[in-house]
Structure formats: C-alpha cells, structure tokens
Amino acid sequence: MNGLFKDDRFAHYNAAGFRQDLVAGITVGIVAIPLGMAFAIASGVKPEYGLYTTIIAGFLVALFGGSRYQVAGPTGAFIPILLAIVLQYGYEDLLIAGFLAGIFLLIMSVLGVSQLIQFVPRSVTIGFTAGIAVIIFSGQIANFFGLTDVKKFEYFHQNMLELWRQAHTFNSNSIILALVGFATIIVITKFAPRVPVLLVALLVPTLLSVVIFNGRVETIGTAFGGIPSALPPFQLPQLTFEKILYLWQPALIIAALGAIESLLSTVVADEMTHTKHNAKRELFGQGIANMITPLFGGIPATGAIARTATNIRSGGVSPMSSIIQSVFVLLFVVLLGPYASYIPLAAMAPILMYVSWNMVSRQAFIQMGTVKTGDAVVLWVTFLLTIFVDLTTAVQVGILLAAVFFLKKMIGELRFTKQKPTEAELLQFGQGLTKYVIAGPLFFGTAKRFEDEFPQWLEGDVLMLHMSRVSAIDATGEAAIASLIDRAEAEGIRVIIKQLPLEQRSLLKRSGLYEKVGQDNFYNA
To answer: 60-100: per-residue pLDDT in tens?
Structure first.
C-alpha cells in the first residue's frame, strides 16, 4: 500500500497552470469526441457509450491516477477484445466484464503487479499492437465502401469473406465521403499540423453529406438512432456468482491489457516531460474508473497514448487538463449530442484507419521482424495470432515463446572451463587438484547440463569449482551441486568451492547445503 495514496500532482498549482490546462483540456476534448464515438462503433456498441467512457473514465483517472498528464478513455487497443466479447456475450455482459476488470486492476494495484508489466517482452507488445491495428483498419472497410448487410464475426478470415460476399453492395457516395475524409487528414497533417485534424476530418465529410448526399449514406442516426443529450441513469450490474465464473477470463484480459496500455502511456508521458509517475496509484485510478464507468453504460477504458501526448504538447501541466477534457465532452453531449446523428459512418472510417496506421511502431516492427532471431519469431507469431485467433491467445503464446527462447539463451550462457591451478592453490590443496571455472546461471534450465558434465571432472583427489561468475542459482541448481558433492564423496574426492558470490552463498546457507559442503571447503583467495 506504500505510496498508493500519496499524491503531489497538484503541488504548486496556480492560476497560470489552470490557464494552460484549460487550453490543453479543450484541445484534447476536441480530439476525444470523434475518437470516442469511432472506438465505440468499432467495438460493436453505440457511439454514445464511447463518449460516456471518455467523460467518466477521463475524470476519474485524472482524480485518482498516478500521472500528471494521463488522459484515459476508450482506445483502439481494446477494439478487438471488446468486439469479441460483445459478439460472444452481448453488451450487458460487456459492462459486467468491465466492472470485474476494474476490480482486477485494483487488486493489481494493491499487489504491486505494475512491477511485473515491465517483463512483457517488447516483441510481444509490438506484435499484438500491430495485429490490433490490422483488425481496426480492416474493420473499417465496410464503412469506407458503404457496404450493407455486413455481419460481424469473431474471426478475421470470416469477416474478410463476409466483406467479399457483400462487395457488390458498395455505395459510391460513401466512398467519396471517405476519400474526402482521408484527403482532409493528409492536407491538415502536412500543412496545418496544429489544427485538430480528426475533428475537421469528421466535420468536412459530415457537412458534405448533409448538403449533397443527405439520405443517400448511412449515418449514426440511421444506424444507431442518434445520441441522447444526457448521461444515462446510474445502474448497478446484475452481478451473480454464475456471471463471475462466466466472465472472469475476458475481464482479466481487459484488466491486463488495460494495465499494460496505461503504464506504457505513463512511461511515454514521463519521457516527454522528464517526470515520474506513480505506477501503483495509476492502476488504482484505472481500477476505480473501470468499476464506475460501466454503471453509466460506458465501455472499458485505459490510458490513451495519443491523447496523453496531445495533452502534453498542448501545454497541460496537471490532471486538471483531463478533468476539463471530460467537462468539455460532457457539454458536447448535452448541447450538441443530437446533431451527431448526421455524421456518416463513412466519415468514421478514415479516422480509425488513420489511428490504426499510427498505432504501429513500423520501424521497430521491420527492424525486429526481419532479423533471424527468437524475437522475430515471437513478434510474427504474436502478430499473426492476434489477427487470426484472438488477443488472449496471442499474448499467452507470445510470452511463452519469449520465455522458451530466453531459457534457450540462458542454457547457452552456462560455461565450464578446465583451468590450470595456481601455485598457491596447489600448495594448499596438493598436486591432485583439478580446477574448473563455472560461469553463467545454474538453474532448472541448465542443471541437466551441469549434471551431465561433472562426472568427467572427478579425476583427482580434490575438485575445485571456481564460481565467482555464477550469476544465479535456484533450487534445481542447488540440487545439482548437492548431487555433485554426493558423487565426489562416494569416490573419496574433496570438493572446494571458490569465490562463490555472497548472494548465492546465502541461498546455500538457507537450504542447508552450506553445512553439507563444510565451511572449510569454501575458498575465497
């Protein structure tokens, strides 16, 4: 619990800081409005649920989180997993899964699981992020071309086949609007980078749709019935023991992905601002947000890297900027929500395609994926499993593969070298002294090699093991040493252990092997 409730993010806050946060909050809010709706639609739910998530989660993470700059809300990383949950379980159960994910995040916070997130290999992170980007991009093809009667399926290949079957239903008006949206994004990012590109890319096709293509393209209004101008009423989830057993796995995946994404976002913020976040408190804030947001119909949320970076570049200095963002989006819902029904779905497509393109660290993917190493295998397997199976399987297999390659590498790190004893060693232990230098980790992955090697070492009266470069010993490695001692004793050979690191010696003392070897047989000269 240490550090969980410590909060100095508003230290020395003043009126000048508030003015900076006001500008940053409005800027981020402008970006968050189209993204919130687009991410919700892509996740298989109504667009207003993305806005509710932006409002509530953004406010609560700012209030209870561990970063000065973090902006939370719906993100692209969640799209495949949320869509899969909606297709398999339904929207109501998605809310319960989100609530349970919040509980898991609170538990992670208290247990200090944030420290374990750093052990997720970069090859796995890059792989599943690229896979998610492909799913988001391909998921917008139907809206881009204005296809009708397109059914959503759980697997990528099923969705691609469905798009092919419905290709004849394309709408040329939708294609024109989507191309206008793309052109708007390209022009603004190149010639006016300070302009809120996503909002403009949403407004221009919408205005064009209203003026020229009214009634000839599908809109938020025709597809979802428009957006209410108020937050939904508070409603507790129908949480039963059966539901918990039914939904704990998807909830855990949401929590794990949310933790990874949030902490990655805070690390990016730290690098941009030369500050340091409180990881435990950040997961605590994410947990609170994901427990409360479903009570108002919102979907799972996490730290949003792009919006957090926008917040920093816009001058935000404290969590107040994210709070202002939430208030700004709330005002949009209350004052302008009904007008969002005019937004064509074709205008959403280029926005999400643009977001998915920017999600991928393309240079890192190419560099890591084209080199013949274990990391490349992990990257490609994680990437392909994310696309063709699901994110859960991809992450599990990716981490398992990374662990196997790591173990294989560590096994190769253990080395045995026969070395000529020094004059001092021969003088002290006699001319029958045989000396071997052992370097590397002696653990469950290398213990078998150690046991296979040591019979050939038993050739004199005394065997010296120089172990100053043994980096680690676990219980299996300790058992291998004990086996060597027993074998040597049976053949009347004394075993001397030289310069064993203090940490490894402490392990032997705790296990009782130190006494078995005997203090006189530890040599430090």
So the answer is: 999 999 899 999 999 988 888 899 899 888 999 999 999 99
pLDDT of 392 reads 79
Examine the pLDDT at 1 and tell me if it is beyond 60.
no
Rounded Cα distance between 86 and 384, Å, is 22
* Angle, CA 40 vertex, CA 316 and CA 120 arms, to 5°: 70
Place of tokens 């509530």: 56
Cβ–Cβ under 8 Å, residues 337 and 228: yes
Length of the chain: 525
Q: How far apart are CA 277 and CA 269, in angstroms?
A: 9
- DSSP string covering 88-136: HT-HHHHHHHHHHHHHHHHHHHHHTTHHHHTTS-HHHHHHHHHHHHHHH
Among all chains, which residue has been given the structure tokens 């032997």?
A: 508
Q: In whole angstroms, what is the distance from residue 306 CA to residue 317 CA? A: 16
* Residue 148 one-letter amino acid: T
Q: pLDDT digits over 15-31, tens only?
A: 998 999 999 999 899 88
What percent of the chain stands above pLDDT 90? 46
CB 35, CB 348: distance < 8 Å: no
Q: What secondary structure letter does DSSP report for 521? A: G
DSSP secondary structure letter of residue 303: E
Euclidean distance between the first and the last CA atom of the chain, given in angstroms as a whole number: 45
